[in-house]
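ingest -> validate -> predict -> emit
validate: passed (alphabet ok, no gaps, 159 aa)
predict: started
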Amino acid sequence: MAGSVDANFMFTLGELFRLIRVYADKEAARYGITRAQWAVLAKVERSEGMKQTELAELLEMQPITLTRLIDKLCDNGWIERRGDENDRRVNRLYLRKAARPLLAKLAGLRSELTATALDGINPADAHRLLAQLESIKENVRNAIQTPAGEPPRKEQRYG
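emit:
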Protein backbone atom coordinates (compact mmCIF):
# COMPACT_ATOMS: atom_id res chain seq x y z
CA MET A 1 0.00 0.00 0.00
CA ALA A 2 1.46 3.34 -1.02
CA GLY A 3 1.63 6.21 1.45
CA SER A 4 2.16 6.39 5.16
CA VAL A 5 0.14 4.62 7.81
CA ASP A 6 -0.60 8.05 9.28
CA ALA A 7 -2.17 9.22 6.03
CA ASN A 8 -4.14 6.03 5.27
CA PHE A 9 -5.05 4.25 8.52
CA MET A 10 -8.28 6.04 9.50
CA PHE A 11 -9.50 6.34 5.91
CA THR A 12 -8.90 2.63 5.24
CA LEU A 13 -10.65 1.54 8.45
CA GLY A 14 -13.63 3.78 7.72
CA GLU A 15 -13.92 2.58 4.14
CA LEU A 16 -13.60 -1.06 5.24
CA PHE A 17 -16.35 -0.59 7.82
CA ARG A 18 -18.62 1.03 5.19
CA LEU A 19 -18.00 -1.78 2.68
CA ILE A 20 -18.66 -4.48 5.29
CA ARG A 21 -21.96 -2.79 6.20
CA VAL A 22 -23.02 -2.66 2.54
CA TYR A 23 -22.00 -6.30 1.99
CA ALA A 24 -23.78 -7.48 5.16
CA ASP A 25 -26.95 -5.58 4.18
CA LYS A 26 -26.89 -7.15 0.71
CA GLU A 27 -26.39 -10.68 2.02
CA ALA A 28 -28.83 -10.41 4.96
CA ALA A 29 -31.55 -9.48 2.46
CA ARG A 30 -31.42 -13.12 1.27
CA TYR A 31 -33.13 -13.98 4.57
CA GLY A 32 -35.58 -11.09 4.49
CA ILE A 33 -33.77 -9.22 7.23
CA THR A 34 -31.68 -6.06 7.49
CA ARG A 35 -28.26 -5.80 9.08
CA ALA A 36 -29.78 -3.64 11.84
CA GLN A 37 -32.45 -6.26 12.58
CA TRP A 38 -29.75 -8.93 12.57
CA ALA A 39 -27.76 -6.90 15.14
CA VAL A 40 -30.82 -6.65 17.40
CA LEU A 41 -31.52 -10.39 17.14
CA ALA A 42 -27.89 -11.26 17.88
CA LYS A 43 -27.74 -9.01 20.97
CA VAL A 44 -31.04 -10.33 22.31
CA GLU A 45 -29.83 -13.90 21.73
CA ARG A 46 -26.72 -13.18 23.84
CA SER A 47 -28.64 -11.39 26.62
CA GLU A 48 -32.26 -12.45 26.69
CA GLY A 49 -34.35 -10.44 29.11
CA MET A 50 -32.40 -7.22 28.61
CA LYS A 51 -34.29 -3.95 28.78
CA GLN A 52 -35.08 -2.21 25.53
CA THR A 53 -33.28 0.90 26.84
CA GLU A 54 -30.14 -1.15 27.59
CA LEU A 55 -30.19 -2.54 24.07
CA ALA A 56 -30.50 0.97 22.59
CA GLU A 57 -27.39 2.05 24.51
CA LEU A 58 -25.49 -1.09 23.56
CA LEU A 59 -26.27 -0.62 19.86
CA GLU A 60 -25.72 3.17 20.07
CA MET A 61 -29.16 3.65 18.60
CA GLN A 62 -31.89 6.18 19.29
CA PRO A 63 -34.71 4.55 21.32
CA ILE A 64 -37.34 5.43 18.68
CA THR A 65 -35.24 3.81 15.93
CA LEU A 66 -34.81 0.67 18.03
CA THR A 67 -38.53 0.62 18.85
CA ARG A 68 -39.35 0.50 15.12
CA LEU A 69 -36.85 -2.32 14.56
CA ILE A 70 -38.25 -4.30 17.47
CA ASP A 71 -41.82 -3.70 16.25
CA LYS A 72 -40.86 -5.27 12.90
CA LEU A 73 -39.09 -8.21 14.62
CA CYS A 74 -42.16 -8.74 16.82
CA ASP A 75 -44.45 -8.61 13.75
CA ASN A 76 -42.28 -11.33 12.16
CA GLY A 77 -42.58 -13.48 15.28
CA TRP A 78 -38.84 -13.42 16.09
CA ILE A 79 -38.82 -11.35 19.30
CA GLU A 80 -41.31 -10.66 22.04
CA ARG A 81 -41.57 -7.91 24.58
CA ARG A 82 -42.45 -8.83 28.13
CA GLY A 83 -43.21 -6.37 30.85
CA ASP A 84 -40.87 -6.11 33.82
CA GLU A 85 -42.24 -7.56 37.07
CA ASN A 86 -41.06 -4.58 39.08
CA ASP A 87 -41.50 -1.67 36.67
CA ARG A 88 -44.38 -1.63 34.23
CA ARG A 89 -42.68 1.09 32.13
CA VAL A 90 -39.90 -1.36 31.23
CA ASN A 91 -39.99 -3.82 28.35
CA ARG A 92 -37.67 -6.82 28.39
CA LEU A 93 -36.79 -8.59 25.17
CA TYR A 94 -36.84 -12.32 24.48
CA LEU A 95 -36.34 -14.45 21.40
CA ARG A 96 -39.27 -16.43 20.11
CA LYS A 97 -38.84 -20.01 18.99
CA ALA A 98 -39.18 -18.96 15.33
CA ALA A 99 -35.99 -16.86 15.61
CA ARG A 100 -33.72 -19.82 16.38
CA PRO A 101 -33.59 -21.31 12.84
CA LEU A 102 -33.07 -17.82 11.39
CA LEU A 103 -30.22 -17.16 13.83
CA ALA A 104 -28.61 -20.46 12.83
CA LYS A 105 -28.76 -19.39 9.16
CA LEU A 106 -27.37 -15.97 10.07
CA ALA A 107 -24.48 -17.61 11.95
CA GLY A 108 -23.65 -19.43 8.73
CA LEU A 109 -23.93 -16.16 6.83
CA ARG A 110 -21.59 -14.46 9.32
CA SER A 111 -19.05 -17.21 8.66
CA GLU A 112 -19.46 -16.71 4.90
CA LEU A 113 -18.96 -12.94 5.22
CA THR A 114 -15.87 -13.44 7.37
CA ALA A 115 -14.43 -16.04 4.98
CA THR A 116 -14.95 -13.70 2.04
CA ALA A 117 -13.37 -10.75 3.86
CA LEU A 118 -10.36 -12.84 4.93
CA ASP A 119 -9.91 -14.66 1.62
CA GLY A 120 -6.21 -15.05 0.85
CA ILE A 121 -5.14 -14.29 4.44
CA ASN A 122 -3.73 -17.29 6.30
CA PRO A 123 -5.36 -18.20 9.65
CA ALA A 124 -2.32 -17.20 11.74
CA ASP A 125 -2.28 -13.76 10.13
CA ALA A 126 -6.05 -13.45 10.62
CA HIS A 127 -5.65 -14.21 14.36
CA ARG A 128 -2.79 -11.70 14.57
CA LEU A 129 -4.92 -9.09 12.78
CA LEU A 130 -7.80 -9.64 15.18
CA ALA A 131 -5.47 -9.31 18.19
CA GLN A 132 -4.03 -6.10 16.71
CA LEU A 133 -7.51 -4.68 16.12
CA GLU A 134 -8.39 -5.47 19.75
CA SER A 135 -5.25 -3.58 20.84
CA ILE A 136 -6.22 -0.62 18.65
CA LYS A 137 -9.72 -0.68 20.14
CA GLU A 138 -8.27 -0.67 23.65
CA ASN A 139 -5.90 2.21 22.79
CA VAL A 140 -8.81 4.29 21.50
CA ARG A 141 -11.01 3.34 24.48
CA ASN A 142 -8.21 4.48 26.84
CA ALA A 143 -7.76 7.72 24.90
CA ILE A 144 -11.48 8.47 25.22
CA GLN A 145 -11.26 7.95 28.98
CA THR A 146 -8.20 10.22 29.36
CA PRO A 147 -9.24 13.65 30.68
CA ALA A 148 -9.18 16.42 28.07
CA GLY A 149 -5.91 18.30 27.97
CA GLU A 150 -3.93 15.46 29.51
CA PRO A 151 -1.17 14.33 27.18
CA PRO A 152 -1.40 10.83 25.75
CA ARG A 153 0.80 8.23 27.44
CA LYS A 154 3.21 8.03 24.51
CA GLU A 155 3.56 9.24 20.97
CA GLN A 156 4.64 6.92 18.22
CA ARG A 157 4.79 7.87 14.57
CA TYR A 158 4.16 5.41 11.79
CA GLY A 159 5.11 6.04 8.38
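The radius of gyration is 19 Å.
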